[in-house]
């Protein structure tokens, strides 16, 4: 696309954001189909550095490990290559990909390898969120990629687009930035339809929009516009806005650093907190739950506080860390449900922690997942 093509998208303000996920595909990183190139990555990294300098937090979801591994072996792409071959290339290229990103930043870059299974399992989901949150708190830059060396189903069309949307929900991001090799979303494929019209704003995703999205546009990438829109749809349901832009345009990246967009902005269905509260209110809870005293109940209801072990009286049932459970006030023999939340500890752990101080958790269990039994961000009143 030419500069004139990009200018067909009117400049607009970015949504307000404090934390973001930036997805970068292989088409922006590979050097003419082999190795890793800073041709486009340098401007993407400059945008991240400018955001960090402004006090914002960024997580990068980056493709490119297979392409990097292929360059190490000087191997040409093979149509229909065996999964084991692609996994071997990913294993070779992953370290080089992480080092490639580290070269753009003075702050430490952390490699985080995930699969969709890690994020479907509630316990591993919580562990991944805790790790990413801790990395951001320490000022590191997490670079997330699929754990392709052990995945089977994950090395498929559009994998990292959808992974980026899941990570955006995981870390409570305000916006998902998806860097593409075209200018944004059109009402038809601009590569084959010269009269395709730009769509700078999408208020709501629809089946008709997905139907006009094309397939993969790169010999090294695995995702096309359709998978990017599927990711935007997933992000929207979690209350996260999505921005599609041309990652090959340094001037577009410079505009993003000043909160100005030339591309497509896709609105979320609801606020991020509303989406999370909706899930907490409506997802099925595990049998049993946590019984608390009046002080803990009052703190949660009146003050919006987290549930601490000191206010816990007992745990009923055999739920596990990461399960959604009911929290009830125990009044004599009566149980009055007051909240639902995702527990940081199992039922067995909570029985050992009941009535203890948060500072005693590690001494009691031999490990700790934090000072709260249920954090206020994972809790909704009923």
From TrEMBL:
Pfam families per record: AA_kinase (PF00696), PUA (PF01472)
Biological process per Gene Ontology, one example term: L-proline biosynthetic process
Residues given in the record as substrate binding sites: 63, 148, 160
Similarity annotation: Belongs to the glutamate 5-kinase family.
UniProt domain PUA: residue ranges: 288-374
Pathway(s) it belongs to: Amino-acid biosynthesis; L-proline biosynthesis; L-glutamate 5-semialdehyde from L-glutamate: step 1/2
Source organism of this protein record: Luteimonas terrae
GO MF annotation: an example: RNA binding
Record-listed E.C. numbers: 2.7.2.11
A GO CC term assigned to this protein in UniProt: cytosol
Keyword ATP-binding: yes
Subcellular location: Cytoplasm
EC class (word): transferase
UniProt function note: Catalyzes the transfer of a phosphate group to glutamate to form L-glutamate 5-phosphate.
Binding of ATP, residues: 23, 180-181, 222-228
Reaction(s) the record says it catalyses: L-glutamate + ATP = L-glutamyl 5-phosphate + ADP
Record-linked InterPro entries: AceGlu_kinase-like_sf, Asp/Glu/Uridylate_kinase, G5K_ProB, Glu/AcGlu_kinase, Glu_5kinase, Glu_5kinase/COase_Synthase, Glutamate_5-kinase_CS, PUA
Protein name: Glutamate 5-kinase
SMART domains the record matches: PUA
Keywords: Amino-acid biosynthesis, ATP-binding, Cytoplasm, Kinase, Nucleotide-binding, Proline biosynthesis, Transferase
HAMAP family (UniProt xref): ProB (MF_00456)
